[in-house]
Amino acid sequence: SKGMVAIKNKEVSPEDIDRVIEAARAVAVPTDRKVLHVLPREYKVDSQEGIFDPIGMSGIRLEANVHIVTGGVTAIQNAIKCTEKANIRVEGLVLNQLAAAMAVLSEDEKNLGVALADMGGGTCDLIYYQRGSVACVSFVPVGGQHFTHDVAVGLRTPQASAEEIKKKHGCAMASLVSTEESIEVEGVGGRKPRKVLRKDLAEVLEPRAEETLQLIHSDLQSSGLLNLLGSGVVLTGGASHLDGLVEMGEFIF
Predict the structure, then answer these.
(1) Which of 19, 38, 149, 240 could form a disulfide with 119 if both were Cys (CB 3.0 to 4.6 A apart)?
(2) Which residues of the chain have a pLDDT value below 50?
(3) What b/e string do you get for 88-98 counting C-beta neighbours within 10 Å, with b at 16 or more?
(4) Greatest CA span in the chain, whole angstroms?
(5) Between the CA atoms of 187, 199, 143 and 105, what dihedral angle is there, to the nearest 10 degrees?
């Protein structure tokens, strides 16, 4: 969204910034959605574009280009309710991708342009920065739980055991694993544990890892920002700890 206000005393003050963001925020949001963040992308003073900190600049008209993030009201209420039932008081709400970016990205990376993929249990959450500002947020509906499910089915072992094996012995590329190494896999329904080659585990995980990174790559392409990411792609989150994922990422991206 874009907002525009007249600069009060011919010099941009913090009050003018607040007013222009408020003006940009005035967009029609469906009743079942709530505005979570209004993130300024860039400012324009008169006809000068591409300004990131206009305070103190002289001019007559101030414009702001902002990225608005909304969330489903019921989803937000349910998240708050679950948290409060665990006896934790909710102080505020923040978009998951934004929190991950604040935790792991440096200012240099944001300024050069970067894509962050937070690989969680159910989804990979994506956020793109260009010239220090949020350009786009997205997600891919695949996560660590899908890897675990593949291991459980592929090696015929319970989910809890599959999660443990994945964390301890998993590798995203079978070519990086020794053909001699074997692991013990728990049986289903009280059956005896059995020995399986670690390479077999890697061969179960490799297609899912490749699919996940390909989906992230497709999202990068559809965002139109692929050639503007000077800092490349940053992987974070629980599922990103899988051995060999970085090597595969370098190959796919």
Answers:
(1) 240
(2) none
(3) eeeeeeebebb
(4) 80
(5) 140
